[in-house]
Amino acid sequence: MINIDDIESEYDSNDSFELKSQSESNEDGNSKTRRPKFSVFNEQTDMKKSKFEVGQKFTSVIIFRLVVRIQAIMDGRDVYFKKNDTRWVRVKCRSCDWQLFGSKMQDENTFQIKTLSDEHTCGRVFYNKNMTSRLASKLFVDEVRKTPSMTVHELMTKVTEELNVDFNLKQGYRTLRKVRDTIQGSHDKQYTMLESFCGEWRRTTMGSTVFVETDVDEDGVSRFRRLYMCLEPIKRGFLAGCRKWIGLDGCFLKGPYGGQLLSAVGMDGDNKMFPSAMSIVGVENYDNWSWFLGLLVQDLKIEDSSCWCIMTGKQKGLLQAVRDKLLQAEHRCCVQHLYTNFKQMHRGLALKDRLWRCARASYMTQFKAEMEMMKQESKNAYAWLDEKDRILGHGLISRLTGLDCDILRMEKNRETMSKYEGLLCPAIFDILEKAKKEQCMCICYYAGTMKYQICCPFGDQFVVDLGSKTCTCRKWQLRGIPCGHAVAAIYRRRDKPEKNVAPIYWKTTYMKSYEPVLNPINGPNLWAPIDLPPMKPPKYGKSPGRPKKARKKEPDEDRNRQSRVNPSKPHKVSKVGTKMSCSLCKKYGHNRRSCPEKNQETAPVEREEMGIWIRKLVGPVHNKQMLSEMKQGIPVLVQLLLMKPGHSKKGCKLRQWTFRNSLDMTGELGLNRAATDSLINPYETASNNTESGHLNSNTGDKFIHTVQG
């Protein structure tokens, strides 16, 4: 064992280490001895590769404890703190005599190792009590910062591989939460920084609409209510290169304070989503949707809504808010949301395909024909769809920062499209190529004044007007891309279909959408302070149980293969998610064992004891006598076995009695079910025969068997 006192005495006895200077002499002429120079622990570089030395210095006892735990985990040693306070710390090993002692230096706010034992004599341990979530969060904070989307299982794998220590799932969840709180700050702290966050966006992007509304509770505390964000570059890009189409939807936010994210998106020239505005509210209702749409109409400068198309789901309050704010706009429901409600009562691939055919119908005659086909397949599905509207047509700051990073990908889209050579955007080019293949089956006749009659297979005929760029199938008017009929007429005119595509799909228009530059913003440490009272998060009532973070999937949604295929029987489809059917009442939701009508049909009679005198048959003579009785039409045990209701053959108590007495009446007599069905009622026969004394004609042992209904 090495002690620091021995090292200091060596330095004191060696004059070569005693350096005197004029500044080190006091008034009496006595000189001070220079202390030996020991290594100093560096928190930035030595945290994961430190090695203890006698005399090693640490900035504080907290750092010393942290290093001891990290070194114990990396070396696989089971150490514990025998004495642990702010002045002295003694560490010992549970499996050997290794120990470490450190204390605070005199006249300095520095912690130093004073005593250090030799190397450990014990082996490594895999389970280490020093491995806690707090320690893991400090060791792997840089790893999570580099990979923000790291999952719990990925973190557990990294900890186990690097440190070779046991690390369970609960520790992984707690570690990841603490690391993210360290990087992003806690949820409560982010609400206090929200005003500064909005001010930074207004400073960097002039003209942006970014603000937050608050409520003042009874105690006079300002609490978050809702937030709206629509950046100026997004506005200009949307108006310059996107079609007049807006999709509205909302989703739940995962966190301790809940809330919902309302979003509005557009479609660029390549049929890709283009973000336009978003809002964070407490709950999805008419008031919040109306407030959000009112601000959106102002930012996008929608004065005449008759030329706009709005697509939504069936969110609470959204339909009425669209009618109030965008009265003249074409309002269409998302078919995916419609099918989610449709499939709850009308399942099957045939009905699903028919629903989408109705949605894709571009003219009224085709729509009615598809509806008639659905009516033939299911009248209930037709009635349900006929009642609906016609389908004709077609942490808070950390979350906002993440959305901001997604918006910054606009630069990538701009760079990718700049390298693309062609008049049309790639997705539109593929659609037009498909229309070119369809025109091969069309026969075109010129009628004059740039009008053409198109004859298609199966007797369909359409009229194409190249002057007004219309087709009676209405696909050209709806999409702005020539359909197969229009392409046939364009080729007949010796023209190029690309020139007849709407300018919204041109590459030059697409570049205008992504031309505005979204300026980056500084970090929280450079945000301008706001002279307002700190904002508090909204009041949140915690629900019972563990919060569900995964989205609830529909029964027919594709899940992992294990849920659809039984591992023990990979050649058979699993019955998970299928409805059970009853073989008695032919209804779904139960089987015959739990059928509610079973007890009604086979209700047992009042319990009564029936004394049935049965001859004890031992030898072949008695068997022959029983055979003669059966030939005379006297049903005995066999009828009771096969005709008693309320149980099966395996559970029949009479059959079990015959086995115990070595009787097999069916085998002896050669009877089958058809023969026994023609016999008379066994209860009436048994009672009649008992009253007449037929079964008591012979002497023999008598047995009484009780039959319960």
TrEMBL record:
SUPFAM superfamilies: Retrovirus zinc finger-like domains. InterPro entries: MULE_transposase_dom (IPR018289), Transposase_MuDR (IPR004332), Znf_CCHC_sf (IPR036875), Znf_PMZ (IPR006564), Znf_SWIM (IPR007527). PROSITE patterns: ZF_SWIM. Keywords: Metal-binding, Zinc, Zinc-finger. It comes from Coffea arabica. Residues 1-38, 532-576, 686-709 are annotated as: Disordered. The keyword Zinc applies. Residues 1-15 have a biased composition (Acidic residues). Pfam families: DBD_Tnp_Mut, MULE, SWIM. One of its GO terms (molecular function) is nucleic acid binding. Residues 462-494 form the SWIM-type domain. The lineage of its organism: Eukaryota, Viridiplantae, Streptophyta, Embryophyta, Tracheophyta. Residues 686-700 have a biased composition (Polar residues). This is SWIM-type domain-containing protein.
